[in-house]
Amino acid sequence: MAASAGAAALGRSSRAALPPWTLRVPRADRGRLLIPASLGGRAPAALAASNQPSAGGEERYCLDLLRKRDYEGFLCALLLPAESRASVLALRAFNVELAQIRDSVTEKTIGLMRIEFWRKAVEDIYQDNPPQQPVAIELWKAVRRQNLTKRWFMNIIDQREKNLDDRAYRDISELETYAENTQSSLLYLTLETLGRCTLDSSGTCHVGGCTNAGSL
């Protein structure tokens, strides 16, 4: 009995004397020899990772922008394969950035300046020199990953510029042109991230037109 009590007391005292960093070790890392950083040691990978700044701030920015401004696009992007999801988030965020210019400025000149920023941003992206703006950086990553077609970006930008005047469409032909250069171009880019864009794009064009008409 006395021996058992002594062993138990010894166990309690040895646990109490353990260095504090060993008390916070994840179960998977228990049993390893841990040396404090002050003595030149290194914490387990799980602990080291928890102390690093979180990565993917640009992607988070795109995600939050879509959640606030394009909730349907946000939900659809979440259903895509992982290898395409980040690229589509960037594409949809790019579309939101352009679409909200007209409603956020009181002078057309300011709107034109913002449009010109995105036109130059796309040019710089294809020169591997994106501006330090979250959406632009994510677009650059998408272009590098999936070799996206520059023409579709420019179609969207040019059409958004023409639409700054905020006037009614004169006929159905104008509406179709707007839809093809905005929604259809966005769909072409989305298909490219999935490796599904082909020369037979008439169906995508019609879907883009219907999507735009339904949003009016």
From TrEMBL:
User: Record's InterPro entries?
Assistant: Isoprenoid_synthase_dom_sf, Squ/phyt_synthse
Q: What protein is this chain from?
A: NADH dehydrogenase (Ubiquinone) complex I, assembly factor 6-like
Organism (species): Thamnophis sirtalis
